[in-house]
Amino acid sequence: MYKGIEASRGIGIGSICLITEHDLSFDSKPVADKEAEKARFNDAIEKFKAETAEMAENIRKNIGPKEAEIMEGHLAMIADPTMAGEMTKMIEAGQCAEAAVTAVCDMFIGMFSKMEDDMMRQRASDISDIKISLLKILLGVEDVDISKVAPGTVLVAHDLTPSMTSQIVKENVVGIITEVGGKTSHSAILARALEIPAVLSIPNICEIVKDKDTAIVDGTEGDVYINPDGDVISQYVIKREEFIRAQAELKNFVGKATLTADGKEVELFCNIGTPKDAKKAIECDGEGIGLFRSEFLFMDKPHLPTEDEQFEAYKEAVETMSGKTVIIRTLDIGGDKEIPYMNLEKEENPFLGYRAVRYCLANTDIYKTQLRGILRASAFGTVKIMVPLVTCVDEIRAVKALVEECKMELTNEGISFDPSIQVGCMIETAAASLIADMLAKEADFFSIGTNDLTQYTMSVDRGNAKVAYLYSAFQPAVLRSIKNIIAAGNAAGIPVGMCGEAAADPLMIPLLISFGLDEYSVNPVLVLTARAIISKWSKADADALAEKVLSLSTEKEIVELLKASAK
Amino acid sequence: MVSKVVKVTNEQGLHMRPATVFSAAVTPFDSDVKILFNGNQYDGKSVMMLMAACIKCGAEIEIQADGPDEEAALAKAVELVESGLGD
């Protein structure tokens, strides 16, 4: 088995077509007839433009306009005065066309590949693609015609250039393996758009395989098998069927409301870390943002973010969600997350120390700057404020008083905001869980943070491998706690959400349905999966299972029962 | 010669698409259009040089136009950058 980078999900089993690298070496002797050489060069450029335009058109038709932009970019680059123009100058100075193309392209490849920006580095591979295409035209080298490969082909190449990808016939290519490239490379993007399983960056794979070898490409895990035995193949045939079935099933849930099997609607939100992630939430069909972590604003900069900077960032997310709920969690930092300019002291027990709302209430100037930024953004959509690490009623009262202070200030300054903005508690400590009924009288909503709730309830540091086995949201103590929190929220008539990893756990979902959770907030890529699982459980089925689960006294028994009952 | 300092506001800076939009818009002018950034000069009509400048969101750049239609060229260039270059 060979391990590479999983670049496009799914499983492909097929026969290898090895795309060998061409010999593009040339004799760079000076040219006598400069005019003839220029004409030869110009013909090559024209041919390149025509071929590239055709590929762009192919991609646009078969994949999409966004992916076609890659090829259109190649056209823009070759049309650039510094590209063809510089090449022409070199030919006029007596170089052959091949040498001119190589020199100018290599100069730009060197320049772009040194850049820090990932997108710019990608340009280096664009130019390399242009260079290879031009040299092939000049040297008269014919490519393997990828569009003509037989059905059931696994393509293996050093690198899959956009020009190659554009010729792929989706029905015939079942997998892609390359020696270079990462998750954000063109080949990865195009493979995902074509929904062809792809594993990239397996060193020397071109030397390991031969044409017609059998290959399994597991683009979900990043595994590749060459000439595997029958057992492995039949195992992967089953995996492939499962994957295809699950994908088809998920597509049925796009754009649908999130309903339990007996028709109760719940909210399915997303957890995000930056304003840009809001786009992802929309693309993944999230119904809102259940947790917008605000720490990125504080960690990316050498200084505290200003009110305006925060406002702009929150507003961007709020506007992207166009009216859908955005729950912003206020600053959740402490001695374990280093923010140099804040001068937080190293603590013996950072998780039990000066952090999150405790820090914010002791530094009200910093906190009010954030609250004002959030309030201003609330004028542009539906925004809610969520307070992390609450352990007593005083804290939520103090935050609400500060929010009122900020509202007064903004009103006096004539700045608009949502006057009825909701302020809720993150329930993630044992203390908050035990007084959930009291907090429910103060807070407008709850959101259960299962990661910290598990850690604090079990008194276990999940980063410590020796005790990590205790870290499980399926421990009876954690399950009881979750049940009590939801019950307290329901009794007080406030919505209860969950933004920890457990909210998307297929084993946890039936329990949450039984307990009466109102809102599930998950990683955007898990939205459809969570919606599909929720749709399988009715309240009655979930209640029956939850009753049995709550009667069990060990985590092992609980997980075994949940696995056996999974739908 | 006329010039003006503007701030790049589109999210990803002058990457391929915005650079293409910019160079395509200033190329029809007879004037030379240059961008001054980080102490270097870049040809505003060249996508490659614009990208090579690696201008990020928030950067302040000076746009210079020099030639018979310099006023119009500068106005067009400034308007484009300020409007986010079609991003």
UniProtKB/TrEMBL annotation, chain B:
Keywords: Cytoplasm, Phosphotransferase system
One Gene Ontology term, aspect cellular component: cytoplasm
Primary residence: cytoplasm
DNA-binding keyword on record: no
Keyword Cytoplasm set for record: yes
Domain of life per record: Bacteria
Any Pfam family: PTS-HPr
Cell location: Cytoplasm
GO BP annotation list: phosphoenolpyruvate-dependent sugar phosphotransferase system
Residue span(s) of domain HPr: 1-87
NCBIfam families the UniProt entry points to: PTS_HPr_family
The protein's name in its UniProt record: HPr family phosphocarrier protein
Source species: Pseudobutyrivibrio ruminis
